[in-house]
Write a structure and sequence with these properties.
Distance between the termini: 34 Å
Oligomer: single chain
CATH class of the largest domain: Alpha Beta
Strand order of the largest sheet: 1-2-3-4-5-6-7-11
Strand content: 15-25%
Number of domains: 2
CATH superfamily of the largest domain: Aldolase class I
Bound molecules: iron/sulfur cluster
Order of helices and strands: EHEHEHEHEHEHEHEEEHEHHEEEEEEE
Radius of gyration: 22 Å
Largest sheet: 8 strands, parallel, barrel
């Protein structure tokens, strides 16, 4: 293992709390959107001052921040993009992620010293495309999700001059890496402008053209049919192959997802990568644990997508548009006093005294405990915590730290379900 470089674990940072959680749970780097010009425009993106703070925070921990400017730009976008890039130059960000060659050229002009990563939205699917971007001055290409491991390996062998980044976990598009007009057509919100309304997740029915309003259900199961909704990518069982392929960065999708999702997904992949480098047999024996932790977060059915090159399994979701989840997000730790064992927890979902909850901890394996008593910050006893973002004092039976997660398991784990 000594000769193989440990890949970077790259996590989404939809806001500052998610950024801090991603880093607390072990991400080596985060990617975030600028307030403008980023896909996922519905995420709480960062303005220049926010990016500066994020970079300062991450650099203080020795980690990196990449900023997405990955819209497909229209002429009018360049009027203000110049100013945005000038501001971005002063933030200290480690790289900018772009798709559009016009944006690429403007970044080279205005921030020539900043690394440029080519977004997955640019659909790098072959070694000549990777070589093209390397020659143009890109530091890294985020590969298209549609590639098999054999194709990734071939790109790595043929194009040593550019770092490769690959998605390992999260939602996928039915369209080619998000190059899709469905949302724009149905809702007026353009996916390539960062405004996707995810209509591929909607429930669809059949209508005969003369019987307006009479919808005939298409049934795949009792819940209907979701004919365009993709399962979620999960490659945690393929860490050794991904490392051997020479991919430099393992990327988790999900800037719009909860801080709990961010923490749990990062923790699972952090453990998987570290276990593998410590002892490949440890990784093999813990695969079920990583998967069970990922099953506890909000997710659709998991798929390996295009990774194996065998598309003999459907990558559609059959269970509906809403993500399944094996646990509820109950709270996040704001502070902990090691002398008294009392933690201050911010409520993120209802829970009450007498319930068995679980702390997902950045350090160690987490633990379950009964909530025997609970108080507000004025020391008034409480039986339950009904108010969103209410601050509560709970005694933790083992040490926790800020940003650890309190959750309730709602279904027993089975990674065959
Ligand atoms: S509608 Fe679905 S397939 Fe199209 S860009 Fe949005 S998420 Fe992707």
């Amino acid at each position: 293992m000594d000769t193989v470089k440990k890949p970077e674990l790259l996590a989404p940072a939809g806001d500052f709390e998610k950024l801090r959680a991603a880093l607390s749970f072990g991400a080596d780097a985060v990617y975030l959107g600028g307030a403008e010009y980023s896909l996922r425009s519905k995420a709480k993106n960062f303005d220049a001052e926010g990016i500066t703070q994020a970079v300062k925070y991450a650099h203080g921990l020795g980690r990196k921040v990449y900023v997405t400017v990955n819209i497909y730009a229209r002429n009018e976008d360049f009027k203000c993009m110049y100013d945005f890039l000038i501001k971005l130059r002063c933030t200290g960000a480690d790289a900018v992620i772009v798709s559009d060659p016009g944006v690429f050229s403007l970044v080279k002009e205005i921030i020539p010293d900043m690394d440029i990563h080519i977004s997955t939205q640019a659909n790098t699917t072959n070694y000549r495309a990777a070589a093209f971007w390397a020659k143009a001055g890109a530091k890294r290409a985020v590969l298209a999700r549609e590639l098999s491991i054999a194709e990734i390996e071939e790109i790595r062998r043929a194009t040593p001059a550019i770092e490769l980044e690959a998605f390992v976990h999260g939602a996928m598009c039915m369209a080619y890496s998000g190059r899709c007009l469905l949302s724009h057509y149905l809702t007026g919100r353009g996916a390539n402008r960062g405004e996707c309304a995810h209509p591929c997740r909607y429930k669809y029915a059949l209508m005969e053209e003369t019987r307006l309003g009479e919808y005939f259900p298409i049934e795949e199961d009792s819940r209907g049919a979701y004919i365009m909704s993709s399962k979620d990518l999960c490659l945690i069982e393929y860490i050794p192959q991904l490392i051997a392929s020479g991919v430099s960065s393992f990327k988790i999708e999900g800037r719009m997802k909860s801080v709990y999702y961010t923490a749990a997904a990062v923790k699972a992949y952090r453990c998987a990568i570290d276990d593998y480098f410590n002892d490949p047999e440890l990784y093999e024996s813990n695969k079920g644990v990583y998967l069970s932790d990922l099953f506890l977060t909000a997710h659709r059915d998991f798929t390996t997508g295009f990774f194996t090159g065998k598309l003999n399994e459907s990558i559609r979701v059959h269970d509906g548009p809403d993500a399944e989840h094996g646990s509820d997000f109950c709270g996040i730790v704001k502070s902990y006093d090691a002398d008294s064992n009392w933690a201050v927890v911010e409520q993120r979902g209802k829970f009450g005294v007498g319930e068995e909850l679980e702390f997902l901890t950045a350090e160690g394996s987490g633990f379950r405990q009964i909530i025997n008593e609970m108080f507000d910050l004025n020391s008034a006893p409480l039986q339950n915590a009904p108010h969103p973002r209410q601050l509560l004092r709970i005694r933790a039976v083992r040490p926790v730290r800020e940003l650890d997660i309190l959750r309730r398991r709602v279904s027993p784990f089975s990674h065959n379900n």
